[in-house]
Design goal:
heterodimer; A: mainly beta; 0% helix; globular; B: mainly beta; 4-stranded antiparallel sheet; 11 strands
């Protein structure tokens, strides 16, 4: 019940295209859904996050779509650029044992080709 | 803000040796996490500290792993004795645990290779 399933494992998109990464969860106690971006040799960094009371959040070219009934959420990267090439992790968190416990998806390696 | 600082960046050691990884969290953050990243298992939470106290160590794989946080600005993760299957990238992350959710701030990790 603590799993967050992420797909695809890897993704190749042409410059200017739309990158879409999907995640699904089981535990309805999750109440915060962040996405992290990781470049090679670096730690993950928060990209964008959403709470389950909204269906969409947009920040620049990055949009999270959230479907509470289906327990699914996705990241859309519009006008994808080579600089977006990185590994993206979806995550879900809930307050448990005195802290916000984060469960990460398995990651999607995105390559944007010119 | 220098971010979360981890050292060393790379560590190569032989099986059976003791390994100590170090972390300096962001000043003012009261929560510290140690994660391990591998291709097979992704990002796994090893241990969580709040106000320098270990709160959840259920992710620590074996007694060979131990972590300490002697003060708010320093934490260590020790593996003794190390084994080849411990090879991974180890991340330290910090955040401020308050009334609202705070994102995790990760360091750049320590890549550990045990031969």
């Amino acid at each position: 019940q603590q799993q967050v399933k992420q797909s695809p494992q890897s993704l190749i998109v042409q410059k200017g295209g739309i990158s879409i990464i999907n995640c699904a969860y089981e535990n309805t106690a999750f109440d915060y859904f962040p996405w992290y971006q990781q470049f090679p040799g670096k730690g993950p960094a928060l990209l964008i996050a959403i709470r389950p009371d909204v269906s969409e959040k947009k920040e620049g070219r990055f949009t999270i779509s959230f479907n509470k009934s289906a327990k699914q959420f996705s990241l859309h990267i519009m006008d994808s650029q080579p600089g977006d090439s990185a590994t993206y992790f979806c995550a879900a968190s809930r307050y448990s044992g005195g802290y916000q416990k984060v469960t990460f998806g398995t990651g999607t390696k995105l390559q944007v080709i010119p | 803000d220098a971010g979360v600082i981890q050292s060393p960046r790379h560590e190569v050691t032989e099986m059976g040796q003791e390994v100590t990884l170090r972390c300096k969290p962001i000043s003012g953050h009261n929560s510290l996490f140690w994660y391990r990243q591998t291709m097979m298992r992704g990002l796994e939470l090893l241990i969580y500290f709040n106000n320098n106290v270990p709160i959840d160590d259920s992710g620590m794989p074996e007694d060979r792993f131990s972590a300490k946080m002697p003060n708010a600005s320093f934490s260590t993760l020790k593996i003794q004795p190390s084994e080849p299957r411990d090879s991974a990238v180890y991340f330290c992350a910090s955040s401020f645990s308050g009334f609202s959710v705070s994102p995790l701030h990760f360091g750049n990790g320590t890549r550990l290779t045990v031969t």
